[in-house]
Design a protein that fits this description.
The complex is a heterodimer of chains A (about 110) and B (about 120).
Chain A: E1 4-7, E2 10-13, E3 19-25, E4 34-39, E5 46-50, E6 54-55, E7 63-68, E8 71-76, E9 86-91, E10 98-99, E11 103-107
Parallel strand pairs in A: 2-11
Antiparallel strand pairs in A: 1-3, 3-8, 4-5, 4-9, 5-6, 7-8, 9-10, 9-11
Chain B: E1 4-5, E2 9-12, E3 18-24, H1 28-31, E4 32-39, E5 46-51, E6 58-60, E7 68-73, E8 78-83, E9 92-100, E10 106-109, E11 113-117
Parallel strand pairs in B: 2-11
Antiparallel strand pairs in B: 1-3, 3-8, 4-5, 4-9, 5-6, 7-8, 9-10, 9-11
Chain lengths: ~110, ~120
């Protein structure tokens, strides 16, 4: 199965700062089928980015995704208070679907 | 507004089985494949399998093979997941999630059912 490794495990930033989250796969992600999800405490995950770089419906443009092959990045250009949460990457191009371990973005 | 509705909680004893439900509103069955994903307390997300609600086709993660069964009732737009031989390691929130047939990303999620396995 494809193993996704997210880094860093925790990111401590202030509102207004830029966040850069990494997701690395142990083999190429088929078709660029890489997604990013946000999860706030006590809530279900929410789709932010699919196809490595396409924003989901209703997602603000401060969220952007990039990358291909085995290396992917989620960038939040200016952190808003509601962005402090856990972020997971996911590959859905090869069965089984797999998720990264998550990056927690916390308030500095 | 497409929604997936799940019951809030289940408590089971070790060795028992659990049936979880996920009811979809709107025309979800023709627009989404339905996945089950679980999350143990304080842990990450784990994909369990997929069911095509219209055709009934299923594909399960290998580690759950033989222990999980996913079914659907098209008359009520509900999908079910049965998980047997429960242990304390199955204590988790179980989410159903809709994989869009066009993009295949999981763009709708239920609110999750907390399953606690305890003697």
């Amino acid at each position: 199965e494809i193993v996704l490794t997210q880094s860093p495990g925790t990111l401590s930033l202030s509102p207004g700062e830029r966040a850069t989250l990494s997701c690395r796969a142990n083999e190429s992600v088929s078709g660029g089928y890489l997604a990013w999800y946000q999860q706030r405490p006590g809530q279900a995950p929410r789709l932010l980015i699919y196809g490595a770089s396409s924003r989901a419906t209703g997602i603000p443009d401060r969220f952007s995704g990039s990358g291909s092959g085995t290396d992917f990045t989620l960038t939040i250009s200016r952190l808003e208070p509601e962005d402090f949460a856990v972020y997971f990457c996911q590959q859905y191009g090869t069965s089984p679907v797999t998720f990264g371990g998550g990056t927690r973005v916390g308030i500095k | 507004q497409v929604q997936l509705v799940q019951p809030g909680a289940e408590v089971k004893k070790p060795g028992a089985s659990v049936r979880l439900s996920c009811k979809a509103s709107g025309n979800t069955f023709s627009t989404y494949y339905m996945h089950w994903v679980r999350q143990a307390p304080g842990q990450g997300l784990e994909w369990m399998g997929i069911i095509n609600p219209t055709a009934g086709y299923t594909n399960y993660a290998q580690r759950f093979q033989g222990r999980v069964t996913m079914t659907r009732d098209t008359s009520t737009s509900t999908v079910y997941m049965d998980l047997s031989s429960l242990t304390s390691e199955d204590t988790a929130v179980y989410y159903c999630a809709g994989g869009n047939v066009l993009t295949e990303a999981f763009d709708i999620w239920g609110q999750g059912t907390m399953v606690t396995v305890s003697s």
